[in-house]
Design brief:
Layout: E1 10-12, E2 23-24, H1 27-36, E3 44-48, E4 54-63, E5 66-76, E6 84-88, H2 93-105, E7 108-115, H3 126-140, E8 147-148, E9 152-153, H4 154-161, E10 166-170, H5 179-184, E11 191-195, H6 203-211, E12 215-218, H7 227-242
Parallel strand pairs: 1-3, 6-7, 6-11, 7-8, 7-9, 10-11, 10-12
Antiparallel strand pairs: 2-5, 3-4, 4-5
Helix pairs in contact: 2-3, 2-7
Length: about 250
């Protein structure tokens, strides 16, 4: 596990982080730091914006109901955004919130909703999705907020990703052989992980996925998993086999 300061509160801010500047806090952030965390003026708060790395800042109280941060020292330089794209059929509310948070924690750099035939949620609140992504990044020391994209149709997804990267999809009908072996046998290339809806992919969608050379099916074992559980399991497998969990020498 990386050496990291888990004792200080950590916030995402959209403004540039520069020494001597003062960054106003949104009302919920002010309430969180002063009333929930019960911090006093002068307390140490970590801040990041996805561009300038992570900074140690000083908590200020310019007015009774206002808060601000003064950047002092950069404690971590900015890292590149993760290259893994997470493609998913939207779920309903709480399960979608959970899935988005876990995908961010597991290293997804792009969150791309895909509208499949059996999708449960026909509408998607992008602001809510981004809020969940920010919350996960704040809590887990992540420096870059994943890109939260507008939903695309299944056909558009195939056209968009054909020739762009390898797409891995979890198929409950795939033979229960080791997904690690399947993934490690693939040539090195950027990857995307595709998770279907609770009802699974339709027969037509599954046939189309299996007909594409840039798509590889993997199994997650003999048990039928809910879509949000499958997301965590598949991301862990992919990161262990081909992602940033795997030593460079492996």
């Amino acid at each position: 596990m990386p050496d990291y300061d888990f004792s200080s509160p950590r916030l995402f801010v959209p403004e540039d982080l520069r020494p001597g500047s003062q960054i106003p806090l949104a009302p919920p952030q002010t309430n969180y730091l002063f009333n929930v965390m019960r911090l006093s003026e002068g307390a140490r708060v970590l801040a990041f914006n996805g561009r300038d790395g992570e900074w140690q800042t000083r908590l200020e109280r310019p007015a009774k109901k206002k808060g601000a941060l003064t950047p002092q020292t950069q404690v971590r330089p900015q890292t590149a955004a993760p290259q893994l794209h997470y493609l998913f059929a939207p779920l309903k509310h709480a399960r979608l919130d959970y899935m988005v948070q876990k995908a961010v924690e597991m290293g997804a750099g792009v969150l791309q909703p895909v509208m499949t035939q059996h999708v449960q949620a026909s509408r998607l609140n992008l602001e809510r999705m981004r809020s969940n992504a920010i919350e996960a990044a704040e809590q887990c020391g992540i420096l870059t907020i994943p890109e939260c994209r507008e939903p695309m149709k299944f056909d558009t997804m195939l056209e968009t990703y054909r020739g762009d990267r390898q797409v891995i999809f979890c198929d409950e009908r795939e033979d229960s052989q080791s997904p690690i072996d399947t993934l490690r046998a693939l040539p090195a290339s950027p990857m995307a992980l595709l998770i279907g809806p609770e009802g699974g992919f339709s027969a037509e969608e599954r046939e189309r996925l299996r007909s594409e050379a840039f798509v590889t099916a993997i199994s997650l074992g003999p048990r039928i998993l809910r879509a949000d559980t499958a997301a965590v399991a598949a991301l862990a497998v992919l990161q262990a086999a081909n992602g940033d969990w795997r030593p460079e020498s492996a």
